[in-house]
Amino acid sequence: MAISQFQKKVFVRSGVALALVGILVGLTVFMGADIGRRTTQLGTLRDETRFRTEAIESFVALRGEYAKAQVYFSLLENILPQKDRLLSFPKDVRALGKKRSLVVNFAFGDEVLGTATTPGHINFQMSIHGAFPNLLSFLDDLKSSSYFVDLSSLELVWGEKDVSATVMGKVFSR
């Protein structure tokens, strides 16, 4: 069976057309997959850009807050006195007692060194003699002084006119 010239042309053109359609379908599938991959990459890049933008905004905000907080750093560092400054603590306590007409005897005890998370302190003991209202005023003065003091015990002995007190506590330092 002989194929006519017309049929040959139709087969050749149909074959070329099918080949072109096949190539176009193949390119479309390949390009669709490539577009999907690139879309995923763009989504990832967009998320990373958003994260970096938020991080930069947070950094700028923190930098501004740091400048505001810088003012308070020296205050926080100096809120507890240096250990050397505690040498004047007995003198200051006696002056507070004298202001309230009290006799104050003072003695330091053991020293506990501070760590990175806790302040150091020195234990002390005081004996105080005088009028009870003056003793109460003295303790208020001590509490509001520039030293951080923790009173652990207070023992009172009542006399006819006056009271004698033994106070144990600690004063904190850095």
Describe the structure concisely:
This protein is 55% helix and 24% strand.
Structure overview:
With 174 residues, the chain is an alpha+beta fold. It has two domains: 1-78; 83-173, Alpha-Beta Plaits (2-Layer Sandwich), CATH 3.30.70.60. Helices cover 55% and strands 24% of the residues. The protein has helices at residues 5-77, 89-99, 132-143, and strands spanning 103-112, 120-130, 149-158, 163-173. A four-stranded antiparallel sheet has the order 1-2-4-3, with helices on one face. The longest helix is centred in the N-terminal third of the chain and has 73 residues, at 5-77. It is rod-shaped.
Q: What keywords describe this structure?
A:
single chain; 174 residues; alpha+beta; Alpha-Beta Plaits; four-stranded antiparallel sheet; rod-shaped
* N-to-C order of helices and strands: HHEEHEE
Would you identify the CATH H-level superfamily of the largest domain? Answer: Ribosomal protein S6/Translation elongation factor EF1B
Per DSSP, the total helix count is 3
- Flag low-confidence runs: none
Taking the sheet with the most strands, its summary is:
4 strands, antiparallel
Number of domains: 2
Helix content: 55-70%
